[in-house]
Amino acid sequence: MSGSIIRPIIANITSIVFMLLTLIIYLCIPELRNVHGKCFICYVFSMLCSYTLLVFTKLDYKLYYCYYYQYFWIMAGFFWLNVLCFDIFWTFSSGVVKRDERKRFLKYSLYAWGCPMILLGLIVLIENTSFVPEDFRPQIAADHCYFGGLTAAAIYLYSLMTVLVLVNISFFVMTAIRILRVQRATDVALQHGSRRHSSVEDRYRIHLYLRLFVVMGVSWIFEVASFIACPEGSCNDTAMLLYYVLPVSVLMLAGFSLLVKTKLRINQFARQPQDTIRTDTKLDHERFFLTVLISVVLALSFALNVLSWAFPDNHVLYFLSSVSFYVVGVVIFFLFICNRHVDQWCGRSR
């Protein structure tokens, strides 16, 4: 087995292990199984299944049926991420949490599981229909590839992913606007209180929206760049090492930086008078930040895989794509497991 196959398999298994640990912890702690937690469990489970099937298709590309299952789980992961983004937006927009969480989760499930199932049915139907031109058929697993051509991949996979990413960005923007309005109302309530606290809030707010729009801009640039030609090139051993180390370092530093910022934000809310905000605002903000970051990581991984698939002779894109498989599962684990709330709940469980 060649190194070009072994490296992606090792990368997938690394992410699978961390995703599995994340899933187990969320399933074992009752406090994490609210509506948002259940949606996150479904998202991680979808990604876990997708990565597992990817290992099998790497080992044997003739496993024709695995590509159909893999398509379902990939799209399910994107739709569940869309649900997470909407739930964050809905939480900040509604102001009051409805009591019937089971009904809300059922609606989310019908959407996030139903849409990928409908898309999979359409692909199977189109694949076995004679009146559809061959260039527009999915051609699953043709010539060792996921889709038979760039046109098919653009129609049945990347266009849908791009639409969902754009919808998520719109949710983030609307949520940011809502946060700004809430913060203005909070400042009015605190104008006769500590001005030092208000100054800290103002500085944090500037940094928050700067990071938010930069993050959204970077994601969109990668989405657009995924269909733009890049020059072919080659890498020596030193360059290959740099291409492995630098992306991982940047993404992990960004993750830890956001975690530190979230910790500081929680401490600031802890010093704020509790009668001026909703009791669950601290948790809502943390969920919002985590959802933004995981969306960015997934968008980057998606863009790198598109580029690697579109330009198979470009070694740089190939190695960056391989690195992204390492990062996704690890980032999910550190973001959603290594935080204060999980530590507290684990302490209660013990």
From TrEMBL:
Q: Which UniProt keywords apply?
A: Membrane, Transmembrane, Transmembrane helix
Is Methyltransferase one of the keywords?
A: no
One GO term in the molecular function aspect is: G protein-coupled peptide receptor activity
Please provide, in alphabetical order, the Gene Ontology terms of the cellular component aspect for this entry: plasma membrane
Assign the protein's first listed, main location to one coarse class: membrane
Transmembrane region(s): 6-28, 40-59, 71-93, 105-126, 146-174, 208-229, 241-260, 288-311, 317-338
The question of whether Calcium is a record keyword is answered with no
Database matches in PROSITE patterns: G_PROTEIN_RECEP_F2_4 (PS50261)
Subcellular localization is given as:
Membrane
Ranges for domain G-protein coupled receptors family 2 profile come to 1-266
Tell me the GO BP annotations in alphabetical order: cell surface receptor signaling pathway
Identify its membrane topology class. Answer: Multi-pass membrane protein
Protein's name in the database? G-protein coupled receptors family 2 profile 2 domain-containing protein
